[in-house]
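Dear U.,

Please find below the material for section 3 of the report. The protein was modelled together with zinc ion; I have listed the sequence and SMILES used, followed by the predicted complex structure.
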Amino acid sequence: MGLFGKMFDALSGESERFPNVDWYCDRCNAYLNEQSEFDDHKYTWECTDCGHKNSISATNVYESEEDFRTK
Ligand SMILES: [Zn+2]
């Protein structure tokens, strides 16, 4: 369960809730991590490119792009 490992790492001092996770907009596929003031401690993030509200939660973390495509 790599995901739980990441979450526990976050509790032990990392500033990000989901360290090493790349977030992309569900609608326009923009890279959210580098958008102005992006904060993965928020539960939703409104994409600054298209305004889509993306859910920032563990259920949206995929182990790989292949995993993402098949769900
Ligand atoms: Zn977007």
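For the text of the report, you could mention the following: Residues 25, 27-28, 30, 47, 49-50, 52 surround zinc ion (CB under 6 Å).

Regards,
Y.
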